[in-house]
Amino acid sequence: MEEYPPEEYGERKKHRDCIGAWQARYRDPAGKQRSKNFKIKDGGKTAAEAFLDKTRTDVRERRYRDPKRSQIRLAAWWQEFWDVEKKKGKLTTRNRKMGIWTKYINPKWGGYRLIDLEYMALQRWLTHEVPGYDSQKKAKELLIAVLAAAIKDGERISVNPAVNLEVTATRKKKHPDDLKPPTEAQYALIHAALPPYYQVILKDFAHETGLRPGEYAGLRLHCIDDDERLAHIKEILVLDGGRLVRQLAPKTDAGFRTVPLTDRAWTAVEFMKARWAPARTRSAIGDGYDLHVEELLIRGPRGAALNVNNLSRPWHRATVQAGVARKVYNPETKRHEWWPRVYDYRHTVTTRLHGAGVPEKDAQSVLGQERGGRVTWVYTHESEDARERVRDALGGGRGLRVVS
What we know:
45% helix, 16 helices
């Protein structure tokens, strides 16, 4: 009547039944009234009645899913997901997940609704905008977990569009020479260039034990067995956004172990005892940021807890001064890295154990590896004279005889 006033278009007969849009009203499982509108072109009354029949059946059989729940933005859903996820796993794992979300997923998909995420768009993004095999793999795994949680949470979405994503980047490997630790001759040059205090930490202790930096940084006096000259690895120090944090467990379950100390390593222990007089108390970890430095055995030169920067700076300066350092291109990150690394002591110790005939099971136990095969294929390298022995053999030297 308003659109076609009678005075202009003439009187018309009124209809008893609605001939416009229809609204289907129903109550969700919580008893809240909801509605949905259907235009004539979308089916009108017939479509509304069919919707009501299906919806009421879903409510009775507990299969109902509120359509509005799937319209939440991915960034908003991440906040709900992360509120629980940040309590799981180790600190380093949580930081890695947050880094993947911040760097790759949120800038591209944070503003999208869950219902709008589609497989092909996600696959194109993963292929063209996430560089490197490892980054693609981790981004895919995290996205699957986030959307899987949405399905579990009352089926915000019915299908996980990320579950069939494929990692298209090729895993690029480094040349074996870029993975090998320095030779003993190179280590001698590096150690000679180190400040005296760091010689105790790296030359006398790390070079003799193969412990990870976070493990000997977190070593406390109560973990040292004076009678048997053993070090019990029970906790580590890790970086959390630039701050050192105590972590109850080592990197892996196998990280809980006992490491025998050589005479040189024990000399380093005695030096640190005399230097810092650490307390033999065993404090609780608490929130992780209270390091209780007074208990730490191996510390920085000014008495603070060791961190990566404490070690990396003097180590890098020593490798450069020794003429050993070189830049190595990392095809995965597309950046240059410096070789050798302070972590390479583990490779050196493993190779020494292997060359001495120590069974792999025993080497695995001392190094804190969960898989014995990793000890052989990752940490064990060819001996220093292997290439010369091969050269002599192929060149007619020792080891080959002519047979006619």
